Amino acid sequence: MSNAIIIAITMVVTLAIVIFFFYYLSIIKKRDAKIIDADWHHFQNAVKHHRIQAIEKYGTQLIWNEHITVEQVKEMSTVMKKLEKSHPELNELKLLIYNKRKDWSKKYPRHYGGNPYI
């Protein structure tokens, strides 16, 4: 087999993997956009009725959803502060919320006019 054929096959396979990856990401983004409202409603309902397992389940789904808003994360953080002492099983969700808020509060050089080397 010549080198040109091997290079062509390698390029086609690599291109197919990249296309599949971006197609899969687009499917996930569309699904997340559809279910964010339902998950938020389920989370609020679970908090209202003090269902800890449902809070953990829907809270984790919401935190990993890229369409979640800052206000929703702040409200989730407030809920976790109220429940953290009486329900230590929510500690993992509390840490996920903390990390999401911390990540959003970073000042990247491309987002503000400051010196990137400070």
Counted beta strands: 0
Sheet with the most strands, sense and barrel status: none
- Compressed to H and E, one letter per element, the order equals HHHH
Terminal Cα span = 54 Å
SS strand fraction: under 5%
Mean pLDDT: 88
Number of helices: 4
Number of domains: 1
Helix and strand content put the structural class at mainly alpha
**How much is the radius of gyration in Å?**
21 Å
**Helicity range:** over 70%
Transmembrane segments: 6-25
Keywords: Membrane, Transmembrane, Transmembrane helix
Explain what you see:
- Keywords: Membrane, Transmembrane, Transmembrane helix.
- The chain crosses the membrane at residues 6-25.
- This protein is mostly helical and 118 residues long.
- It has one domain (3-105).
- The chain is built from four helices and no strands.
- Helix 1 (3-48) packs antiparallel against helix 2, helix 2 runs parallel beside helix 4 and helix 3 (70-83) packs antiparallel against helix 4 (91-104).
- The radius of gyration is 21 Å and the shape is elongated.
- The model has no long low-confidence stretch (mean pLDDT 88).
Please summarize what this structure is.
The chain is mostly helical. It contains four helices and no strands. The mean pLDDT is 88.
